[in-house]
Design a protein that fits this description.
- By secondary structure, the chain is an alpha+beta fold.
- It has one domain: Alba-like domain (Translation Initiation Factor IF3).
- The protein is built from two helices and three strands, in the order H-E-H-E-E.
- A three-stranded antiparallel sheet has the order 1-3-2.
- A hairpin with a 2-residue loop joins strand 2 and strand 3.
- The termini are far apart.
- The mean pLDDT is 93.
């Protein structure tokens, strides 16, 4: 999970957002753990994120499967919150 978390944090630092997709309970569990760890890494840099979950259909071996997509985005604070 820490390697994936580091990759998530790196992309968020560079681009401001990233999408993580997972299929199956174990993979979704690992993806959620990785985003939680990435949040901790990013908070050390003063970056706060939000995670927006959704379902997406993906093609794997010519079969349509349902995946969970975790959209990880930076959270911009309103001026009065700072």
């Amino acid at each position: 999970s820490t390697a994936v978390a580091g990759a998530i944090a790196g992309v968020v630092r560079e681009k401001g957002n990233v999408h993580v997709q997972a299929i199956g309970a174990g993979a979704v569990n690992q993806a959620v753990k990785a985003t939680a760890i990435a949040r901790g890494y990013l908070q050390l840099d003063g970056i706060e994120i939000v995670i927006l979950p959704s379902f997406v259909e993906v093609m794997i071996d010519e079969q349509e499967r349902t995946a969970v997509r975790l959209s990880v985005e930076t959270q911009w604070k309103k001026a009065e919150e700072e």
